[in-house]
Amino acid sequence: MQIFNLRSILAIALASLSLSTNATPVSVTNGGAIELKVAGTYTSGIFDEGAAETAAFDPRTNRVFVTNADANTIDVLSIKRVKKPRLEFTIDLSPYGGGVNSVAIYRRLVAVAVEADVKQAPGNIVFFNRHGDFLAAIEVGALPDMVTFTPDGTRVLVANEGEPSDDYLVDPEGSVSIIDISGGLASAWVTEVNFQAFNGLESELAPLRIYGPGASVAQDLEPEYIAVSKDSMTAWVSLQENNGLAIIDLASATVTDIVALGTKHLNGANAIDASNEDGVINIASWPVVGMYQPDAIASYEVDGETYIVSANEGDARDYDAYSEEARVKDVGDDFIVDPIAYPNIVDLADEAKLGRLKMTTATGDTDGDTDIDVIHAYGGRSFSIWNAAGQLVFDSGSDFERITSSALPENFNATNDENGSFDNRSDDKGPEPEGIALGKIDGRTYAFIGLERVGGIMVYDISNPLIPKFVQYINNRSFDGDAETGTAGDLGPEGLVFVSKRQSPRGKPLLIVTNEVSGTTTIYTISTRRGKRY
What we know:
By secondary structure, the chain is mostly beta strands. It has helices at residues 7-15, 202-205, 217-220, 345-348, 399-407, and strands spanning 18-20, 26-29, 34-43, 55-58, 63-68, 73-78, 86-92, 99-106, 109-115, 122-129, 134-142, 144-149, 155-160, 175-180, 189-193, 223-228, 234-239, 244-249, 254-260, 263-265, 289-291, 297-302, 305-312, 325-327, 358-360, 376-378, 382-387, 392-395, 433-441, 444-451, 457-461, 469-475, 493-499, 510-515, 520-528.
């Protein structure tokens, strides 16, 4: 299947952008059929402590349930008046564990993922009704990081990340818990889907990254996020650090496949800005590859075929006892590279070129002789679409950096906890696409992708998975404000929730975005622009 990118489309689009950079929010549109506008924001007043990470929406009460990791609570917001969201009540999660990670809602049930006081111990999925009354707590695997209901509401799925301790002496197995609630909570039962059947099969799974010190496959795989098929029969699980995707048959509760997602050459349509020390925007081709390493994923159907959409953030293992991180400039100290593959490595290692780029020392030795044959960088700086078997159908290439460089030339690749940070993240993972939500409007399917670092939401029409179309970039951040005092707007978008027109209190589709660093929850209205075509 051919892989398409938007380079040529983007060149045309950037020439005709509707652009305003003198006010907050910045908005770049491509003349599409929909447009996001900021409606209202709830501010927790808590900076850089995860006071708004993920959310779920209850259409019956017009409430948004927001995870607040700082307080270990669910903050329940009323958005009956979307311009003035307000806090109605909180749910204390301290009796159930040490930290809240995720929340999901299906009809009357609210499911909350809470990790144990010690991350490596089993966590809990805690159920409440929509009014915050406790219903049940069910033990699941270590570090439940994401929870979701199947579309038919009969099962709750949990991605148990199973991260190791800092000293790497305790490394629990990653797993997916399937909680069957088809007979009600009183008779709920749990099946733990693990990866033990793949132990010892590292060579067969290659190039999947299995590299934790002393870890079996089951210990090394770290489920991050789950997407479920429309018929509630199949789940896809992102394995971010491992750069893979697991596929689970829900009826039999078995892993049917683990797919290595591979890499992409960071040149041409995939070019990146690799240095934070050159003082300029320099989106260029480099002789390195990027690992996709998706965080959030979502699924949708086109003509009866299921597709998976991924936000390719990237992530490294960096613990007290083990770290895979290095910079290209560390060549000769932390690692060596193949002199045939990189005859000009001394020149490339200049800090204004590739020297500052973060890379891994865990993978890249393709011939087993201990030197690095291919330099691997973290994340795709993009979003991708995969078919149901995990084969790449589309990748957005360097679109995110090209669009943000045009929209925010003075704040390109800024970080998310301080202003005046131009080019700060170019050597890391660029804009860092992390959260994703899909929504259908007037028969067309749209992807909304949050950029964790520079901020803002990318919108694409993905109705044709082979040729998605850029629609809008909007960033509700004030680069003139002060991040710590709360005058910089939204910082660090983490969770995204689409609300359909039918379920919306406004009578228009909504996008709800939780911002981890600023501790804000912002509601966007989505207006349809009749007669607009691409």
